[in-house]
Amino acid sequence: MATQQLASTAAGDRLNQWFSQWFSDLPRILPGLLLCVTLAGVSYAIAAWPALNEVVPLSALTVGILLGVVIRLCVPMPATIEPGIRWTLYYLLRAGIILLGFRLVLQDMLSVGFGGLALVLLAVASTITLSVVIGRALKLPDTLSVLVGCGTGICGASAVVAVDGVIKGREQDVTCAIAMVTVFGTIAMFAYPAIANAIGLSEPVYAAWAGSSIHEVAQAVAAGFAFDQHAGIDASLYKLSRVAMLAPVCAVLAVWWRRRAGADEQADGGKTGSPFPMFVLLFVLMVIVNSFVPMSETVHKTLTTADSALLAAAMVAMGLQTRLVSVARLGWKPLFLGAVVAVWISGLALGGGLLLAG
Asked: Does a structural domain hold residue 24?
């Protein structure tokens, strides 16, 4: 009993210290935080603009990072906002990934069947592996290759930033990977319905193809409903099954990265890499809660809305920290890598969809 009381007291003390530190840092981080939140609101307004949606439907996350990049490029940033931008990118990003779990329900994932889950697993694993192999052949850093592979294979920008929490890539790697998944995901979103109509794909095949291969959740859902209502629902289920791969992929990458870093640092007498990030474990917990704990529609809507807002603010912060010169120095190789893995997962998903339907 005494041990439990001591542990509880210690945890309370740590929490009090955290809040005290946060309040003392608030004046320093508030300018950058307010800028990111304000621009996130602007991103939502732009993403919801009907004229834009008719031409190129974009999520608030994609608009947020683009807006941040443009502002960083065109407007001198005062030093007073930098601490808040860094705080937003670190804390709000992790909070957004945690709340992303409220968009997933384990029962929905199982509804695609054993064959559908096998297709999703193969698509995710093979795309990430192929990205690393090709990236090394192109002499690109593993951080960039892993981020491109995960963004393509799992769920676009959200996967990129979540995996970056494990492997700690460079800012230009993260921005470049998000650019790749945005470009090729948008192309797929428009191309898939046209191709499906041209070759006469059935609804089950198309849903498996779109849901198992298009990059962003919003892109996959939009492409699904562009075919028909039922395809939109089924494509969403395949896509959410891929999103659920985020946690196991992060776990595998954490082990690989720790061993990789340990091998490098052992030669230098250093320590092994950082542990598995807690926010990914909390993401898994939220998926379990959302799957088995009843909650009102109002509460659920509030949580998912908060998730979108947090991630949009984090994307703005990422854009504001991006230097386009660093991204441009990467050259044509990331574009080639993004194209190859996009074609790979598309072909694999189409073949898998035909096999499942047959």
From this structure: no
